[in-house]
Amino acid sequence: MSFEGLLDSTCKIMQETLGAADGIGGYAASSWGVLYPRVACRFESLPKMEEILGYDKKTTYPDYYLYLVYRSGIKEGMRIYYKGRQFEIKLDENWSEQDKYQQLSLTELARQ
């Protein structure tokens, strides 16, 4: 079975967008916009906090892994919306090293 055949769900990948200038040197409130809608993915729940060392990246303690086909522009700090739940990307690993697949380490922020 191919990797794509294991991707049994879809999610939205969101990025933060800054508002317009407020006229006093700052910006209006930021919001979250959809970067990638309906991304084929697979969620994997981690049983306990697990330490991840990513070479020169910081250590994170994710609640979930999200596997997907490689997409450029995905960065730490972006958000994932999945079945009414909201997650923050803590670590982005290109574990195929050929820009084919990604493993994102996530922590849950909120449930709706």
Automatic annotation (TrEMBL):
Organism listed in the record: marine sediment metagenome
Protein name: Uncharacterized protein
InterPro entries, alphabetized: SSP1_head-tail_sf
